[in-house]
Design brief:
Layout lengths: L14 E4 L3 H13 L6 E4 L2 H13 L7 E4 L8 H8 L3 H7 L4 E6 L4 H9 L3 E6 L4 H5 L4
Parallel strand pairs: 1-2, 1-3, 3-4, 4-5
Length: about 140
Amino acid sequence: MAKTKKLEEVKVENVLLIDEDQIDNFINERMILSTNFSNSVVVKNSALDALAYLKKLTESKATMPEIIFLDLNMPVMDGFGFLDELAKLPAVLEAIQPKTKIIVLSSSISPLDIDRASANALVYKYFNKPLTEKYLNAINL
């Protein structure tokens, strides 16, 4: 495995990682922390938990994540469902925009998924799993 290079300073204060896969979460969280991209990663194992978390942050006027990494393929509510529901929450949208960037991080290489996600106004970028240092460096803040 290639050696990761630490950034000189933390790039973002906090990250929200939404994915039901524990192994993917472990790998992606380690990449974020080991490169010094962020020193705070909150992991939510479902889109519903993530929406509840964002609502709670909004209600308490707490700091929102600067980056949300969103998986597409999750049970109960997939990543597209998360984006649809988020669009129906004006208070949360107001709290996260324009600073928070939503990045789809998916194992799907389907052109339909990539095009659909990329066409969504809430989505900043689409990356294929696993998260890499190259991807982290491609995020402009």
